[in-house]
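Replying to the earlier thread about multi-chain prediction with a worked example.

Input:
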Amino acid sequence: MGTALDVRVKRAGKVYRDGEILSGVVVVTSKDTVQHQGISLTMEGSVNLQLSAKNVGVFEAFCNTAKPIQIINSTIEMVKPGKLPSGKTEIPFEFPLQMKGNKVLYETYHGVFVNIQYTLRCDMRRSLLAKDLTKTCEFIVHSLSQKGKLLPSPVDFTITPETLQNVKERASLPKFLIRGHLNSTNCVITQPLTGELVVESAEAAVKSIELQLVRVETCGCAEGYARDATEIQNIQIADGDVCRGLPIPIHMVFPRLFTCPTLETTNFKVEFEVNIVVLLHDDHLITENFPLKLCRM
Amino acid sequence: YFLRHARSRNYVSESEVCKLESVPLDFGDYHPLKPITVTESKTKKMNRKGSTSSTSSSSSSSMMDPLSSVLDGTDPLSLFAAAADPVTTAPPTDGARRKRDKDESLAVGSDFEPWSSKRGEILARYTTTEKLSINLYMGSEKGKATTAGSAVSEKVRTRLEELDDLEEGSQKELLNLTQQDYMNRIEELNQSLKDAWSSDQKVKALKIVIQCSKLLSDTTVIQFYPSKFVLITDILDTFGKLVYERILSMCVDNRVSLPDNFSPESVNDTAKETCLNWFFKIASIRELIPRFYVEAAILKCNKFLSKTGISECLPRLTSMIRGIGDPLVAVYARAYLCRVGMEVAPQLKESLNKNFFDFLLTFKQIHGDTVQNQLVVQCVEIPLYLTLYSPAIDWILQCIAYHAPDVLLTEMMERCKKLGNNALLLNSVMSAFRAEFIAARSMDFIGMIKECDESGFPKHLLFRSLGLNLALADPPENDRLQILNEAWKVITKLKNPQDYINCAEVWVEYTCRHFTKREVNTVLADVIKHMTPDRAFEDAYPQLQSIIQKVITYIYDFALLFSVEKFLPFLDMFQKESVRVEVCKCIMESFIKHQQEPTKDPVILNALLHICKTMHDSVNALTLEDEKRTLAALINGFIKMVSFGRDFEQQLSFYVEARSMFCNLEPVLVQLIHSVNQLAMETRRVMKGNHSRKTAAFVRACVAFCFITIPSLSSIFTRLNLYLHSGQVALANQCLSQADAFFKAAVSLVPEVPKMISVDGKMRPSDAFLLEFLCNFFSTLLVVPDHPEQGVLFLVRGLLNVIQDYTWEDNSDDKVRIYTNVLHLLSAMTQEAYIYHVDKVDSNDSLYGGDSKFLAEINKLSETVVSQILDHLKTLGKEETLRRQSQLALYFFNTILAHGDLRNNRLNQLSVNLWNLAQKHGFADTKTMVKTLEYIKRRSKQPEMSHFTDLSLRLPLQSRT
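Result:
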């Protein structure tokens, strides 16, 4: 019905980087001619911090970090007030994605407590009789490659009953020996996390071995902070009682929207960790934790 | 009132004038009906044009059905294809060849046994009677993960999920399904996958696929697992194809779709992005097994992303399988990966090998505690459990062995040996590797089979597999007997009849192929010995049947076959009638196919009579027509192959015996009558027409045989034709009273001809058949001499009376057509010398010698017939029948023209009237009329035909205005 507004960016993946030009079209479809008071395009980028339920109240009293932090906000006027012909009108645009000063363009990230989002908003102002039309379109920002920062940092690990912490009754544990390595804890976000794991021996049958990717979001300021860890994805790498002594590949692709390069700012932090979880048949759960450093190349 | 004058004719001179240029028939030439040769030709019928045609009885000189003989050879189409092939494969340019070579390495050839052929086998073999369950969780996992931290309260969320559930039929746990239910459910899922896809619910489609592949991690009711694998991988294949085609369709640029060998660069961004999305989605599937299967299913899509995608993915997926703990689940996952790999990138052999080696590494798990405990819970024995591995291992090895060098195969064998020479592996090696490879090393294999540790895998299966290979490829000459001895030593010790027969079935082929009847006899005797106790054969009919089939494929000399002493006792094991008949049919088919010479070997005759009797006795009220036809054709084939040479008496008594044996199959009786008639004619030929007292008596016996057999047939036209035919034979053999009896029987049968008869299962009007028969009959009657005690032309009159009384269709002219034809006969009868005779039989021409009383009788008859015709023509004066009137008038006119003496004024006038009647109402075909007139004019130029000139002047041509 009536007039429809749509914003389309050129790239299929909607992925842009700092310094690039965001191009696309605004599409207006209407049966009749459209009278308007001007069409403008706004690029917005902001960090939203949300406090988890347990921390609300404790914080709000002395800290104002819960307010959105604006990263970028600029508007251009696309079309001056006037008329658009009936049918489909495509108005092309080009928008430079550029930061002012030495502010950093964070990567798009959708977390639970931290959200970094970039949108293009198109507004068509109209006369009093007709409602203004608005359409927003999210686009994704990838940060520039962090050259030279990445050094491979392989980790070898051995898990035995003795290496475990937080064990209540060490005596009741079945004996086992699990060895393995991660090829690197410094990971390129587009490359999978790789490694190998060998169940050398285990008295109890193995039920499952999983890789748990955890993000750790920290919101805070000088007065104090809230730190929450949530699982992003859980990938099973072994199902059932696997063959002893046979290396099992560790392989995990980082999910696109839920990960970003490890981020540390004064107000918030986004970090990632991986847990190797071994579930034994008698419901013993063994977890080994590895902090990761993600970056984009 | 009307006198008919037949013109007198001199047939000899006439035929010389009119005869078509005669072409000698060379029977050596190719002729489409060649196997059927004319063996007798007795009566000659004169037709209007004056040329001669022959009514002949023909009999097939070859035992083979002409149709099957065509099928027997290479069929012309494939010959043509084979001939055309060199054209297409004609030496191409070097570049093109190189390209093809490359193509070949990229695609799997037709010599690779495809998965589809294994499918059915697996489904049929791995079945269960236990209850199955499907547990599908359609709830959105993703949804849960993202909403986990959201502020929506628990209560609201569960409600929303319930709504979701209703929408997607979310969690379903279906318990207590029978195997068939289960298969139906899976088929439903396959369908709903396609539906979801076509209605653009891609996420739902993916969920279905994930849930389905999840079922593969469930090993309860383990004996059904291979079949489950087949069913579910079907769904995965569907999914893989859907995704691939969808992405491919996105690549269509300007309506030009991508070539088959596209490079990733030519794929547009949208397609790539979609493809990438699929891979990301799949990479985030939580559980290992669904993640593996779904990714393997869309392996082909890697082609859109990069050139090396597939070659990078395969090794990764291969090592991913190491995470699957259950060895059975893992080995099937490997089989699936090999299957997809062979389809998408058969050139990547490395992963195939890696899969197999990985499998060998995990082989010890099979005997580990986890597996053993599971088997105890499910009450599954180790031998059964091990056989579950076979389809998967067979498949993997088949992929590896495809076009692989012998070195690799030897290496594989060595590796298997190292693993304690395991029986399971050995079996798979034998079923997957090339038969030639196995056969050449048969003795080694026998050694290995003997040595290999039992570990539960049944040894008879090993011998069976070896036997299958030996049926396909020949082992070295020197080893052959030893191989048989070694193998049979083990086989004969098998206690379980099923195990035994499965093995024996396979080895019979090897025995028949390489050894003499002595060995075959021994083997058959051994089978009988094993299968008789406790009527074990009852459960083994298919195998026993296949044994018979193999034996007759290799021993098709029936004299030799029946000299195998145990062959007939072996047949006695088929006690269930349907099976026995099937076996008999096989044997008879083989006999008809292979027997070249007629035989009188009493052993063959006895045995085959027994077999045919068995087939015949299986016929009952419920037997299908088709089945009866098949059986009769087989028995007929046999009867035709029996010949006692010059011992005609023996031959006849064989036919008598056959008649008593096969009385329920009409086609057999018909064949017997034909055979006996043929025998009578053969006797006549041997005696050169002059029967001695002995042969005359024999011929009369033949005739009597026919006479008493014909009434037992049910088809009226068969009876009529056989009466006529046998009458002709009797006449030819100077059995005049017998011939009369046949003809009388035929005459008295005519009134019984029904209006409709069933032809090939459809009801058809019988008039055309009757017309044909009567014409044929009248032609024969010309030469039949009158019976001294009956009146003149007794048979003709009798037949005319019957025709008169027969209830014809109201609107048919058949009666008049026959009458017109009778005029032909009558005119021929008035001639001084008849157009044809039967050798050594005096026909009416010499009996009466042109006696005027005889001629007067004929004239009286003609008069009656002509008046009948004219009456009928009058009744056709109505508007709607004018066309018929015109046709009949012209037909009658032509008859008079050909047979009448037109110098007679009244006849002349009649013909003019008929001519005018034919044209009166404008229904005459102008072309025909013009042609007829031209003919008359031409005839008038011949000597003694000058009156035709006058006639032609009196015949006006009506112009069409």
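Strands of chain B lie at 36-46, 52-60, 132-136, 172-177, 756-759, 762-765.

Feel free to reuse this layout for your own posts.
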